[in-house]
Specification:
CATH class of chain C: Mainly Alpha
CATH superfamily of chain C: MetI-like
Structural class of chain C: mainly alpha
Shape of chain C: globular
CATH topology of the domain at 95-273 in chain A: MetI-like fold
Strand content of chain C: under 5%
Distance between the termini of chain A: 15 Å
CATH architecture of the domain at 95-273 in chain A: Orthogonal Bundle
Radius of gyration of chain C: 22 Å
CATH superfamily of the domain at 95-273 in chain A: MetI-like
Order of helices and strands of chain A: HHHHHHHHHHHH
Chains: A mainly alpha (about 300), B alpha+beta (about 525), C mainly alpha (about 280)
Shape of chain A: globular
Oligomer: heterotrimer
Number of helices of chain C: 10
CATH topology of chain C: MetI-like fold
Largest sheet of chain C: none
Number of domains of chain C: 1
Number of strands of chain C: 0
Strand content of chain A: under 5%
Chain lengths: ~300, ~525, ~280
């Protein structure tokens, strides 16, 4: 087990390096940089040129990118994420609390998605092929059939303006309700699908037929056998979904103004503030890698039939 | 407050009454909180480092005060500067500062503070984006605590209008030195409100500054600012802000033009419209790309555009169609010239001009001349519904005279720098600035994107305006510049969108000053 | 019991019936759009903006006076077009790379899997924004941006299926007979991964359309005045309380289109590949 863990960790290093390399390549390929985007209000190129040149020098934006890359990796090794060109402040300051906010949002949304996904999947699998199946499947599909920003705006309209169940501008934990619900609804569909097919598979197996013949109740069958199988499938999917979940979270953050890294990243790209963009990509990638590692471990723990060494 | 008589037996009365009183007092306090929207969280609140519109509005409305302010007629009036004198050669301006003004941290406002602020801007190590706005400023002297002397290398015409800008407020040097890099998170000024707490990404909480003095003549409220607290909530999405307005969670918010009729009909709101704005949207043409180097062609393009249709479609009519290149709220705007509408909608004249220049419709209905088909690209900034709509109307207008225009929108970070490359035909953008020098910055040859051919008469006029300090003479000079630009069709002015905001019905005296900033201390919130 | 062909099973499946019919309607609109409405979808007429649905304008007019019904039916072309284009942009490189990873030498497998992992770890919004920032905004760029996000999924799918198939007896038999990798790929592998591929494509393509709408939301999608449903929805999102038809029409169109594609995908999965692990990713 320890060997497996170490091997997996070692395998993530080239991926992370690959990500850093890719980010830098992207940065090199983007035609403008933060400084030229910053001086949009400054009209005289001559007057702004001096200030711009100095900023570029300070942030080494005029160096060839292999040199910048080496510098960046060196910085990272010392735990320094660099400084934002626009705010002139250390990136780590801003990213820290924003990342926590995004985690809160995605965690809450994941809970909603898993509960909804399992629930609807269970209903659909229980009466497979019936109208209940179609209804439950349709409900879960509906969530994945609207663009995220529409879902968010509709939620605000329905729950905050018409029903007045929550304030539009909530504080504290209450501000999590609408964004988490929206994101959870959207991400529930694939989970419901997997849960349904996993449960159908189990429910059709010989083992279940034998158990039924022995007189086990439907409820016991569902909860003790179908559900764990579905949970397994759902958990695996969650690992793969992280990229999509984070991406969806970005849009939800922009719509609801949730102060997470998504909102930050979208702004940072528009301002061509690369230090921040890089840091967000790095954190996103590490999150993805970490979640997948955890998922793999859980999978291995739950289902000892899985060979830990398999590719 | 009445003292409660000791009760014997009814144990619940006292706590009940206390609770009621507590609730009442908190409700009273809450009623004295003004809740407004911020479109974006400011990246910093240090005005030496940033001049974004968010920074400008937060600092300029609440936290910092400037040397002068502009009154309703656009004239500079004393604020932190009690009076001023311009030297005979126009190169030195001496301000006499007001006494007895204190910063939020208790330190005194004096000439040293003003000098410190301007020195910070002038310091090349700070790479301050404010620097170009100060033009030919060379040095700042503070011979005594009440006097500040600004020395320029040549007379600087836009000086007073620039000093009135929101981001030209003065910071407390004590606070700046103490906070160092962190100053941007806790600005300290002399304004009516001080920073209580900034929850990054979410809201900025401001509270009344007890040591504030009302020195401006245009304030209605001469004592303490009326609202005890101001909450600036970051809301990026317009529909969310609109929703918060409807539920009463915002005291006031700007309205999208299509929502205006709905709010006007609603008795819970008052709607204010301000057309005296300092924003101008315009279409630049790249004179380095034929046929945009011909005056006749440029004029034809301008005459083909139906600005009424643009303002109707993009702003529901709540924008001023512009035919002169200076926004209506900027001192120097030539209203008479605008009324003549020489660059306005006249499609038949446009067609005649094009035909006279040799353009003939080809088989597809597009104009063609010597093998060149009239097919061009119009670039714009993405992310704004109004701009998207305006572009679509322009495209359709030009199609009607036989010019095919393809639209290309991108975000500002890509759009503006890409224009420096020179491979564009037309580009539409907007600019907000309170002073006529914006015309010079944008359109003095070779132009802000190096897209203009030299035109000495206009350049000479710009230079003259730039060094004229007397407001009346300057306005005449600016009018001359506008006339020349209209004649040459240096740019196609498009529209100036109005500022429309809705305020909750019970709120009184929610008004903006001569520069377009809210006067928060005057606002009377309902109890 | 007589075995039935996949087609017949599909036609009997309820989800396929509902989804398929709706999609067929959309395809019809895409093909016959100009015939379905007399109004020009991009003709501006600001004097008649935001008119409610009526006899002249069946779904009313939008913020620039354009007929909404006409824009919706013409938008079907954009839906089909964007769907197919992003499908190609994701599937073609995905399948090629996945095959290469599956049948090629081990180092190639590792390299391609590594690339796929790197791509998958980017939150898709950032990836799209980065691509648009590099290539400049245009329709082609938007397609590429959306498409790139879908590539790693196809790589994993194809690679996984190919690796599993390699163990199969008939493949080993072919190898023993001396067939080249390319021949094995063509004869044995491709036909057998067709089913999971179709199922996967039916689930992932709607996501690409939604991603394109997200791009429009961030201001980097298709250029105006294209009657693309996502862009229409973005432009009308603040009009829900003022002119609900301008928002509801593209909203319903997108919803129905994607919903029916998903229904059809469900049916395809049930019929073609019910035990597939990939059916949900």
């Amino acid at each position: 087990m320890i060997a497996y863990l170490l091997r997996r960790l070692a395998a993530t290093v080239p991926v992370v390096l690959g990500i850093l390399l890719a980010t830098f390549a992207i940065q090199a390929a983007i035609p403008t940089d933060a400084v030229s985007a910053m001086f949009q209000g400054q009209l005289s190129d001559n007057e702004a040129a001096e200030a711009a040149a100095m900023l570029r020098e300070r942030y080494k934006l005029d160096r060839p990118w292999p040199e910048r890359f080496a510098h960046y990796v060196h910085q990272l090794a010392h735990g320094d994420l660099g400084e934002s060109v626009r705010t002139r402040e250390p990136v780590a300051d801003e990213i820290g609390w924003r990342y926590l906010n995004t985690l809160k949002l995605t965690a809450a949304a994941l809970v909603v998605a898993v509960l909804l996904g399992l629930g609807l999947g269970l209903l659909a699998a229980w009466r497979r092929g019936s109208w209940l199946d179609l209804a439950a499947t349709s409900l879960s599909l509906a969530g994945a059939s609207i663009p995220g920003f529409v879902a968010g705006l509709l939620m605000v309209l329905v729950f905050a303006v018409w029903l007045r169940w929550v304030p539009v501008l909530a504080d504290g934990w209450r501000s999590l309700i609408l964004p988490a619900l929206t994101l959870g609804l959207i991400e529930a569909a694939p989970l419901a699908r997997v849960a349904r097919s996993a449960m159908i598979e189990v429910l059709g197996s010989d083992f279940i037929r034998a158990a039924r013949a022995k007189g086990m109740t439907e409820w016991a069958l569902l909860t003790r056998h179908a559900l764990p199988n579905a949970l397994l499938a759902v958990v695996t999917l969650v690992g793969l979904q992280v990229g999509s979940l984070l991406g969806g979270a970005f849009i939800i953050e922009v719509v609801f103004g949730w102060p997470g890294i998504g909102e930050l990243a979208v702004q940072a790209i528009q301002w061509r503030d690369f230090t921040i963009t890089q840091a967000v990509i790095l954190i996103g990638a590490l999150t993805y890698v970490a979640v997948n590692l955890v998922v793999d471990l859980m999978y291995a723990l739950i289902d000892p039939r899985i060979e830990l060494g398999a590719a | 407050m009445n003292t409660l008589a000791p009760s014997s037996g009814r144990r619940l009365t006292r706590p009940l009454i206390m609770t009621a009183l507590l609730l009442a007092s908190t409700t009273c306090l809450q009623a004295q909180t003004m809740r407004l929207r911020l479109g974006a969280d400011p990246e910093t609140l240090y005005n030496v480092q940033s001049i974004s519109s968010t920074v400008d509005s937060v600092l300029g409305t609440y936290l910092l005060e400037r040397l002068v302010y502009l009154d309703d007629k656009g004239q500079p009036q004393p604020w932190l500067a009690e009076s001023w004198q311009v030297s005979a050669d126009g190169k030195t301006v001496t301000f006499t500062l007001r006494q007895g003004v204190k910063f939020h941290d208790g330190s005194d406002f004096d000439a040293a503070a003003v000098k410190f602020h301007f020195d910070s801007i002038l310091d090349p190590k700070n790479a301050s984006p404010v620097l170009p706005s100060l033009g030919p400023l060379v040095s700042v002297e503070a011979p005594d605590a009440r006097t500040v002397r600004l020395k320029f290398s040549k007379p600087y015409g836009p000086l007073f209008n620039t000093l009135s800008l929101g981001f030209m407020g003065i910071n407390s040097p004590t606070a700046v030195k103490k906070a160092g890099r962190a100053y941007g998170r806790r600005p300290v000024g002399t304004g009516a409100y001080k920073l209580a707490r900034w929850t990054q990404g979410t809201e900025i909480r401001l509270e009344r500054f007890d040591g504030w003095r009302a020195v401006r003549a245009d304030l209605h409220q001469r004592g303490q600012p009326l609202p005890a607290e101001v909450l600036l909530r970051v809301i990026r999405e317009d529909s969310v802000a609109s929703a918060a307005l409807e539920t009463g969670e915002l005291t006031s918010a700007q309205l999208l033009p299509d929502a205006v009729p709905r709010f006007e009909r609603d008795p819970h709101f008052q709607v204010f419209k301000n057309s005296d704005v300092r924003t101008l949207s315009f279409i630049d043409m790249n004179q380095n790309r034929p046929p945009f180097d011909e005056v006749g062609f440029r004029r034809a393009v301008s005459l083909a555009i139906d600005r009424q249709a643009v303002t109707r479609g993009a702003f529901n009519g709540y924008a001023t169609p512009m035919t002169v290149p200076l926004a209506p709220g900027i001192p120097g705007h030539d209203a008479a010239l605008a009324a003549k509408g020489e660059l306005g909608y006249a499609p038949d004249k446009a067609r005649a001009l094009l035909a006279a220049a040799g353009w003939k419709p080809n088989a597809a209905g597009l104009l063609e001349r010597k093998g060149q088909v009239a097919r061009f690209v119009l670039r714009g900034v993405s992310g704004s519904d109004a701009v998207d709509r305006a572009l679509a109307v322009v495209q359709s207008n030009l199609k009607a005279v036989g010019i095919d225009v393809r639209l290309e929108t991108s975000d500002w970070g890509a759009f503006y720098p890409s224009l420096a490359k020179g491979d564009w035909d037309m580009a539409m953008m907007g600019w907000t600035w309170p002073d006529g020098s914006v015309m010079s910055s944008l359109w003095r040859s070779p132009g802000h994107r190096k897209h203009l051919k030299p035109f000495p008469p206009l350049d000479a006029t710009f230079d003259r305006c730039g060094t004229t300090l007397d407001p009346k003479a300057r306005n005449q000079c600016l009018a001359e510049a506008q006339r020349l630009m209209v004649e040459q069709v240096t740019v196609i002015p498009m529209y100036s969108p109005w500022a429309i905001y809705a305020v909750q019905a019970g709120v009184q005296d929610f008004h903006i000053d001569g520069s377009g900033y809210l006067v928060p201390g005057d606002v009377r919130l309902p109890k | 019991m007589k075995p039935i062909s996949p087609w017949q099973a599909l036609l009997r499946h309820r989800s396929a019936q509902v989804g398929g019919t709706l999609l067929a309607l959309i395809m019809l609109a895409a093909l016959a759009a100009p015939a379905m409405s007399a109004w020009d979808p991009i003709a501006v007429d600001t004097a008649h903006r935001l008119l409610p649905p009526g006899t002249e304008h069946w779904l009313g007019t939008d913020e620039l006076g354009r007929d909404v019904f006409s824009r919706i039916v013409h938008g079907a072309r954009w839906f089909v077009g964007i769907g197919l284009a992003t499908l190609a942009a994701s599937a073609v490189p995905g399948i090629v790379l996945g095959l290469a990873a599956g049948i090629g030498p081990r180092w190639l497998n590792l390299l391609i899997s590594g690339i796929a992992d790197v791509l998958l770890s980017f939150p898709y919004v950032l990836l799209m924004l980065a691509v648009v920032a590099i290539l400049g905004p245009s329709l082609g760029t938007a397609i590429i941006a959306v498409g790139i996000g879908g590539v790693p999924g196809y790589i994993r799918l194809v690679r996984g299926e190919v690796l599993a198939l390699r163990q199969a007896e008939f493949v080993e038999a072919l190898q023993a007979l001396g067939a080249s990798r390319w021949q094995i790929a063509r004869r044995a592998l491709l036909p057998n991964i067709a089913s999971p591929l179709v199922v996967y494509a039916s689930f992932v393509t709607p996501l690409s359309v939604l991603a394109a709408a997200a791009l429009s939301f961030l201001g980097l999608g298709v250029q105006p005045p294209a009657p693309e449903w996502g862009a229409m929805l973005v432009n009308a999102r603040n009009l829900l309380l003022t002119a609900w038809w301008a928002t509801a029409a593209p909203g319903f169109a997108i919803f129905l289109a994607i919903f029916s594609t998903n229904l059809l995908g469900n049916a395809l999965r049930d019929v073609l590949d019910p035990r597939s692990r990939w059916a949900a990713t």
